[in-house]
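Dear colleague,

Following up on Tuesday's group meeting, I ran the structure prediction for the two-component complex that the binding team flagged. I've pasted the input sequences exactly as they went in, so you can double-check that nothing got truncated or mislabelled along the way. The structure tokens for the whole assembly follow below. Feel free to forward this to whoever is handling the docking comparison.

Inputs:
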Amino acid sequence: MLKNIKVEAYRGFRQLNLEGLNRVNLFVGQNNSGKTSILEAAQIIASEGNIGVLLRSLRRRGEIVPANELERNVEEYDVSHLFHGHSMKLGTGFKLEGFNGKVVSVSCEIVPAPQDKDTDQLPIFDIEEGSQLALSLRIGIAPPVYVPLSPFGGIPIDTLRRRPPGMGGGLAVLAGDTTEVSPIRVVPTEGLENRSMSVLWDGVALTPDEPKVIEALQIIEPAIEKIAFLGREAVRASGGIVVKLKDSDARLPIGSLGDGVKRLLSLSLSVIRATGGYLMVDEIDTGLHHSAMEGMWRMVITTAKRLNVQVFATSHSQDCIKSLGRLHQVTPMLAAEVSLHRLERGLLRSVRYGPDEISIAALQEIEVR
Amino acid sequence: MVEGKDDLHTVIHLLRRHGLDYDNPSQGLPYIHATDGYSPLLDALSVAAKSYKRLGVIIDADVDPKARWNEVRHRLKSVGIELPEASNAGGNVGAGIAGDWRVGVWLMPDNSQAGTLETFLSRLVPLGDASWPHAEASAKEAKRLGAKYPDKYFSKAHIHTWLSWQEEPGQPFGTAITSACFRTDTADALAFVAWFKRLFLE
């Protein structure tokens, strides 16, 4: 579990310290205050420098551009956005650091591209013709890994498919001892695709966790009795996930029960399958009516506690925070697992609210967003 | 944040007499939150100071102004906000948790003497008002005859007794300010309005 996180020159942050992280951490703040960047930073640290995480974040944000005017079908990751001020000068870099019993630090810097003669000694991806610059990625004090940048300053999308010799384990494993890395699950704002949920379900079906998933769905629709993931033929008609309601013989596509039920399915599967690791949720309240939020928190916090998962989530919603306050009044033991952080532009640390303060804010209707 | 509804209405009506109109949204006046007494307000203080760019706190100095000032100071210090050792007579405005954030504290009646909202209001009674000392004597006499109000609420009883003898008897504090039963140009009133403007509008 990460106790604190330090971010330097990453995306919108010149510097930010997050202290007093808890089992469940909710990040709030105005638009463009960097909530999503914090989830990414936590994910990069939790994954101990997985470059796949970094690149997926670029993809999710649409930070992919044509390499140049002539070859519009050749695309590359535009890494400039990773750096504070979008600067791509030599020596520009960012650093992410966290403490989870040991210090985990990940730094990334723009350096001169190593020359061919060095490649025997260094883990390096193929150097593009004309490469002047490279990204140097460094985990702790391990030797850096170099990812050459194209003459246009990006990472060609296919670079990472051409793994350097001697580096097994896929593009995820770049450096350091990553065999011990904990699972990380991500639920984006738009939720998970049915296909992704189906993969998560495979690890839950017929285990003692299966009834817990049903319970989660019952927060919104108490009549749900069973859930099934269908094979290929049925997918077109139902989206692949169907449920059975009490006193009914019909099987209903999960989508017909509304966004909230699907959101709860994403969340419950993801937190269960993050056992011993991390869950990152962007806009955790998406699709949920305020009456369902207390139940959602109860499910997420209980499961995270039981399965040793640390949760990082963002929200815009005052109802979402209020429901945590109500939870504190009903079940203080659970609410004690939560801390709330507001990202405030210009401050070097987050504004943190402990469980008691979340409760006071709800009681006195103080807007902490 | 204020301790109760009486404080809230007093502030709103006093400000209106000085051109700050809560019915006019374009003036951008701050939301006023009334807690249910001093203790919940004190508990919410650090949370509010972390949440609002401009926070004003209006509380009764009560019997020991120094003690109250220190309690407030201590709570704000816990979130990194420093207030001076002694309360300033003209009201207090200090830096909040970030660059342009501000926190202000006003101790009723005048940031130095013991008292409450009612003390502040009693000083707004027109000078030489003949019924004012009579209301005081009546409230005392009523107590002697068995009236149930506790001693600590004497000034409340006094002021409400007096209000019941106005042209429109029994108006609440706020309305009585607007209908000019109370003056609004005393030194305390002017200092309060200046404090409010300095904190929220400058």
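The two ends of chain B are 19 Å apart (CA to CA).

Cheers,
M.
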